[in-house]
Amino acid sequence: MKLIATIISLLVITGAAHAAGNEGIAVVVNSDAITNSDVDERMKMIAASTGIANNPDMMDKLRPQIIDMLVDEELKMQEARALKIKVSKAEIDGGFEEIAKNNNIPAEQFRQMIEKSGIRMSTMNDQIEAQIAWGKVVAAKIRPKVEVSDSDIDSEIDKLKAKMGQAQYRVAQIYLPVNDAGKEKDIVNFATKLVAQLRQQPEAFGKAAQQFSQAPGAKKGGDMGWIEKGQMPSEVDAVLDTLGPNQISDPIKSQNAYYILTVNEKRQMTEDMLPKREEILQRIGLQRMERAARRYMLDLRSSAFIETRV
């Protein structure tokens, strides 16, 4: 059996190497390959789009995160193909326009900026395609299984009413999951370096969240809206009151992830701020769908053949 497994692995690697042509392979993901130029182009795009320092030290810390992101995107695209899910050019163009809108830049001007920076449009389009494809996978496989009952909503309303007069926080986050315990040190090093950069450039937090955060609000610059204590892990709750407006937290470890937070506003919760039932329904549903999607992604990773060459 070991011999058969070895032969299969060699066949997978050989097929991926053939697909990569003359480019050096960074990672093999099942039967596909991520090349060194894929990694370099994504690093170039992220450095340009976030404004983080493009120096050897930062790029060294960034590289393992970029490789992990590309592996996840490849697994998402493979799963989408397995489910016969496709993403049209029109959908990719729409995703590009949404990114431009979120950055307050007309789409054509944004396109020109990317091209002038020497970044291949295909690099951004690949990222957008993977995001849209994964959204369709989640919609097909997970969303139908997510249920929120009236009693769930009633319970949440009761909890909110009990918090009248307490603080609410307008929070943005960068959520970095630890999918592989062996790579936790890389994530800590990257998060520490990113925090140092963001404290020098706090205005870049939203763009950094768009690229690095693995939470659903990443597209909106990590914005979580108004939250109360008890919605986040206790380690995160403990930091909320220590942050002044637009301050950047240290990396916060909670379970199998690291959080970087900024608190944009604080206020006292009053009766008129209670969300409507529909809003609570959506919030609970999104939280449950997010947890299920993370488990799905972990399952894809654990069952995949992944060989890092760099």
Automatic annotation (TrEMBL):
Presence of keyword Transmembrane helix: no
Matching InterPro entries: OMP_Chaperone_SurA (IPR050280), PPIase_dom_sf (IPR046357), PPIase_PpiC (IPR000297), SurA_N (IPR015391), Trigger_fact/SurA_dom_sf (IPR027304)
Protein name listed in UniProt: Rotamase
Keywords: Chaperone, Isomerase, Periplasm, Rotamase, Signal
Keyword Manganese in annotation: no
PROSITE patterns: PPIC_PPIASE_2
Lineage: Bacteria, Pseudomonadati, Bdellovibrionota, Bdellovibrionia, Bdellovibrionales
GO molecular function: peptidyl-prolyl cis-trans isomerase activity
Residues of the PpiC domain: 166-265
Chain segments annotated as transmembrane: none
